[in-house]
Amino acid sequence: MNDARFILSQYDNMTTEPPPSSIVDWIEARRVLPSDTPLPGYYRFNRTPFQKEICQNLNPYSPVINTVVLKSRKVGMTTAVDGVIGFWIGAWPSSIIYCTATEALARQWATENILHVIESCGLNDRLIAPFSNARNKKKRSNSKKN
User: pTM for the complete prediction?
Assistant: First the structure.
C-alpha cells in the first residue's frame, strides 16, 4: 500500500463520534497491566482512588487547566498517566509531550512503557511508520553511511 492509499484508508476509518466523556471509564475498559506487575489485569481506579481525579482532570472536557501532584515514589502514577496517554492516542489523537525526572527515565518510557500501553489498549493501528516504502528506507540507510 502506498502512502496516499494509506492516508485515504485512515480518513475512511475516521469516526464522527465525539471522544468519550469519561477518561476514567475509557482507561478501565481498555488498559490491561501485565502479569508481572503488582496488580495485573484491567486497571481499576478503586485500587488507587487518589489517582482518579488527577486522570479526570487530564480529560479534554475538563475545565481544569493545570494539575499539580505532590506524591511519593512508587504509587503507580506512571501507570495512571500511561492510561491517560493511551486515551489521548486512541480517543483524541493529538500531540503529546511527556516529561519525566531524568533522561534515563524518558528513554525507558519511550522504548518500553509506551509500547505496552499501545498494545494493551489495542492501539497498534494508530502507529504509522516514519518510512513506509523501500525508496525512503534506502535513502535513510545511505544517509547513515555518510
Answer: 0.72
